[in-house]
């Protein structure tokens, strides 16, 4: 059995940990069962945003007539989008080659599962098997679509984000598409296919689209998607799927009226949320604890309940975004692989994770919604500013009262005047949210334990201090510790710090 200093399972955000351990000359095993680079590169953020960016331009060109610019025959060239998208996805093999070239890194292409507290069996993709063990093990195995238990779905056939960017990639846009789920995945694909000319219907179980957003943002996006011709059915129960007259059919029931309807389309895309990839890991052989949905429980230092095992990214069930996963991996790299004393350790706090849904227009937020702030007992004040109130907004053709006149909404604690949450819907909301993320990240922070009972002796010592960190606005390291939503154009400014850090 090969023994390693470090084992990293998964090659999404966990690559940041591999890089840090590699720079220290440690002996590392990297295990990956699928395409290298994880969800973001292969079937998530990157290919969807290549599509979304093209879809945005379609909408912008259509709207440009209100400022005196006319473009005829605006259309998406699916072949160009397809070529650009797969060009990017295919970079995954370069990631594998990159790691394989290091003498201190062994790359295993296969599925890892625990056989003991620190040992793993790898069912290699070529049919062979390997057994390895390690001192430090990092789990970054991500998540996948949580397929609903819907009668007839398997027989009818369906798409997920995984198969759409895999064996079922469409050679041309569908004529019609039913989307199960009105979260970020459902809404972003609805925007893309709608702009590509597909007749799109979203079937959403919740009474709102994007229910993790502030209610005002959900209402705005509903109006926008509807204005663009997307049919949205809220508050629905999906009863069954079938094939009728050559079309795929979804039978749904309105939860309020009880009315049952049959919806037809060429294809069904399933986007009802995600489940962790922990089922393949056989964590029962370890002391790693999971919650009732199978997500690995981690503390503010990304420690699991098992000694020497950490977990980052989607698999820990906290804010499933790539920038959050990167942030966690950077914290571990700093704490464990940069020779700093524990008193200089960083920790994660999830209350300042920005989120952007790349619909048209974009929806972005950081911090608490109005409803969640009130629920937490804050006496809140609200400040709202519309795009049309700014000179640039007018220049863009936005007038007060326009359906698409986006806005910024601040949720403020009446007592302290602190910003509890910032919410933006409108053009480039992904960039406009950044100042609020920076502002909330700056300042003096005191460690806030997550899962109090998960604590290595070092974590216990740091909690007892208690550990503090002052992020003054001027030093470049404050930028390094501030998240930026991925993939927003604000990365161009925020990631300048990498050139300072020479990474
Ligand atoms: C359609 C879609 C669009 C998205 N858009 C955005 C966006 O715009 N912005 C954003 O921030 N987030 C977005 N996300 C979410 C984002 O992709 C994830 O939060 C992020 O990629 C998670 O990274 P990770 O490192 O935790 O896991 P992953 O990137 O999923 O990496 C895990 C890796 O582990 C491998 N693996 C799993 N189990 C094993 C095993 N047992 N053995 C070996 N290898 C294993 C997997 O094959 C995978 O490569 C999107 C997701 C989807 C599905
Ligand atoms: N721009 C981004 O950052 C981005 C984009 C896409 C995905 N993601 C991440 O990926 C994760 C998965 O996205 P998602 O949209 O699948 O998840 P989600 O859990 O956010 O949304 C799924 C939606 O589907 C609905 N739903 C669930 N079961 C249903 C059913 N049977 N019928 C009808 N509706 C049903 C739920 O009410 C929910 O609103 C998200 O948590 C998100 O963080 C991020």
TrEMBL record:
Q: Which residues participate in NAD(+) binding?
A: 181-188, 273
InterPro entries, alphabetized: FAD/NAD-bd_sf, FAD/NAD-binding_dom, FAD/NAD-linked_Rdtase_dimer_sf, Pyr_nuc-diS_OxRdtase, Pyr_nucl-diS_OxRdtase_dimer, Pyr_OxRdtase_I_AS
Q: Where are the transmembrane segments?
A: none
| Pfam families listed in its UniProt record | Pyr_redox_2 (PF07992), Pyr_redox_dim (PF02852)
UniProt KW keywords: Disulfide bond, FAD, Flavoprotein, NAD, NADP, Nucleotide-binding, Oxidoreductase, Redox-active center
List cofactor names only: FAD
From the record, give the cysteines joined by S-S bonds.
40-45
Protein name per Swiss-Prot or TrEMBL: Dihydrolipoamide dehydrogenase
